[in-house]
Amino acid sequence: MTPDRKDNDQPMTDFNRTRSLFHLPEGVIYLDGNSLGPLPLVARERVARLLCEEWGEMLIRGWNDAGWMTQPARIGDRIGRLIGAAPGTVVMGDTLSIKVYQAVAAALEMRPERRVILSDYGNFPSDLYMADGLIRSLGRGHEIRTVAPEAVGGALDESVAVLLLTEVDYRTGRRHDMARLTRAAHAAGALTVWDLAHSAGALPIDLAGAGADFAVGCTYKFLNGGPGAPAFIYVSPEHIGRVRPALSGWLGHEAPFAFDLDYRSGPGIERMRVGTPPIIAFAALDAALDVWDEASIHDVRARSMALGDRFITEVEQRCPGLELVSPRSAEDRGSQVSFRFEHAYPAMQALIDRGVIGDFRAPDIMRFGIAPLYLDADDMVRAAETLGDIVAHGRWDGPRYREQRAVT
Amino acid sequence: MTPDRKDNDQPMTDFNRTRSLFHLPEGVIYLDGNSLGPLPLVARERVARLLCEEWGEMLIRGWNDAGWMTQPARIGDRIGRLIGAAPGTVVMGDTLSIKVYQAVAAALEMRPERRVILSDYGNFPSDLYMADGLIRSLGRGHEIRTVAPEAVGGALDESVAVLLLTEVDYRTGRRHDMARLTRAAHAAGALTVWDLAHSAGALPIDLAGAGADFAVGCTYKFLNGGPGAPAFIYVSPEHIGRVRPALSGWLGHEAPFAFDLDYRSGPGIERMRVGTPPIIAFAALDAALDVWDEASIHDVRARSMALGDRFITEVEQRCPGLELVSPRSAEDRGSQVSFRFEHAYPAMQALIDRGVIGDFRAPDIMRFGIAPLYLDADDMVRAAETLGDIVAHGRWDGPRYREQRAVT
């Protein structure tokens, strides 16, 4: 497990090895791991074992004997190592939207005299929807103030209770400076809720070092936990003892199995648990996290920046009609590259038909995830060649390229 | 699929056949399916297929091409058939605690002038905890009034906004009369939220016929969906158009993939969706529901009543020190039988060690789930014999029988 903690410049990660740990369909270059990571091979066997040996044989005893009950904390700690969170400060469960709700609700209660949730137009809409639902329920005149990403720092004032941001923009890949904005928020007396959906497993994060108050994230993107894999929440150890859980479920209770009629929250991060944990999903996620025993997030980041730069160069050489909407500087990007293109939707469909899977974001964005655990420079070149051919020759004919379908 | 809809007295369900559909460990009599149902054999293959053929090969395209996105509604309709809910009125996701929160929040908003949530001491604590967390957040002087189960009808008055009840008591198995209490609640101007955790898959439920407003439930008990399987929520078609989702996540949005910054709820039950659905867990649950294509819930109920009666008779013959705390009349019980016993904890541990798995509820309850899909009269007799031997001879020696451990 040493690769996580390296501090020199020598890459210690064998990316041929990490690539071999995933199933990638024949002939596919997968540039959508920022939506749904691919299947880690070991997940098949791990889930089968969970079903047959644990659920099948242990039945109800699995909660104790197979450690099911402690998985939210144990897996939370595994993710904590990737995001700069100390043991006991991250717990798993529910979905990212639910975790946003919990974090924002807790933060608002800690700033009772303030009424503004500050966010930006690049935030993932569900984060804003959840905050909106919360403040409507509260009915105390809170408002969500949404500004341009670059205007966030300047919009922090003493009305702001919570700064709610996604570190890496889901469309453009633009990356916020977490440490700087957290400092600025604190200077203004506000708390921070960082959404790490497009960060966790993509780049080094230092929640403790940045002084982040709350953070949330999903695990089906760069952490490869599978479709609908459970979410995580981090609460700063400085705050956790004072957080009143808005979603006060039994598994956040101090003694869930006492079945008291009155709620008393558990002492630490476990109070952010709500209901019965999703054990089958945890088996896949836990297996997916094994790759981090052999990979350094620092190496992954370095390779992601190089691959992203290479992809931009290769695409721009071939496709002058595509406009880069991601930051050109790799430092300012997450692990994706996005282009604006008039025919983005049909061109992406044509590209997918030729085995290069990226995705489309309305109205005109072609989005490409760069996941170094299973992608290399050759993939970048071949993807750009295919895209170049499609764009140069307008190869998107037929009705299926005109109908927009839902993709996450 | 006809067995669900039978209306004569001839059993149409082949219980030898249904039993063959489950994995039951050698030598085990499993009387804890009211906590966690056993593994349906077909779930192994179905989950493996989801991993390899869908996630592995389709990758992100699974959301459309494998129908992942529509599973919350499709599986909801499968469960709807077992609980008297019309198609399009049940949707899957999250945990039961989260679904309780959604239902109570919606109901309170529909009765803005009232301040009381009425429940009973037999309700599952997490339901009360979630309601408590909600009303603390609202901060508008709501209160939870908790009375004895038999006093619920008399406690309904014009202060009550919501009647929040679990139909079948998780400890005693006592069953509320859903139709009568729903009528009484409506007569008092209150709305109902029914928790079907110990009902769904155990007995026929007629939500539409009873005029229930909201219902919620889990799927890992008598529906055998696996540890931590997703929950469901029902909203009466009469109300759904007026429900404002408190947990307003993107998958409840009218157009999730438009990525609008403003939330607009979907037109129907889909507005109760929150975040990305748990697809791996759905594969197991969907497989588990196949048994209902061959089993009638009416047959299951008839057999459950007979098996429960038989178990009571057999136990009482052998164990005069055990006091039945479940209703003696099968009509008034759910699908479990519970006894009070001074040495409940160590006796249950000893019983489990001898392959008869029930569970313990503090301080002194031995609880036995009766799941006719995989249990028969012979199991009842053999379980009672083993229990009788343990009780008659005080066979619970050694330290492991004195330490209480967590079980759900």
Question: How would you explain this protein's 3D organization?
Answer:
2 copies of one chain form a homodimer. In chain A, α12 packs parallel to α14. Chain A has 14 helices and 15 strands. A 7-stranded mixed sheet of chain A has the order 4-10-9-8-7-5-6, sandwiched between helices. The first copy, chain A, has a 4-stranded antiparallel sheet with strand order 11-12-15-14, covered by helices on one side. In chain A, strands 1-3 form a two-stranded antiparallel sheet. The radius of gyration of chain A is 22 Å and the shape is globular. With 408 residues, chain A is of the alpha/beta class. The first copy, chain A, has helices at residues 15-20, 41-58, 62-65, 71-80, 96-110, 125-138, 152-155, 178-187, 207-210, 237-240, 279-289, 297-318, 344-353, 377-393; strands at residues 22-23, 29-30, 39-40, 90-92, 116-120, 143-147, 160-166, 191-195, 214-217, 232-235, 323-324, 336-340, 356-357, 359-361, 365-369. At the A-B interface, α2, α3, α5, α6 and α11 of A face α2, α3, α5, α6 and α9 of B.
Q: How helical, in percent, are the residues of chain A?
A: 25-40%
Name the largest protein-protein interface in this structure.
Answer: A-B, 93 and 94 residues
Calculate the mean pLDDT score of chain A and round it: 95
**Helix-strand pattern of chain A, N to C?**
HEEEHHHEHEHEHEHEHEEHHHEEHEEEH
What strand order characterises the main sheet of chain A? 4-10-9-8-7-5-6
What fraction strand of chain A? Answer: 5-15%
Structural class label of chain A: alpha/beta
The assembly state of the depicted protein chains is homodimer
Low-pLDDT regions of chain A: 1-7
Shape field of chain A: globular
Report the span from N to C terminus of chain A: 32 Å
What is the number of beta strands of chain A?
15
Largest sheet of chain A: 7 strands, mixed
Q: Please tally the helical runs of chain A, counting DSSP H or I stretches of 4 or more residues.
A: 14
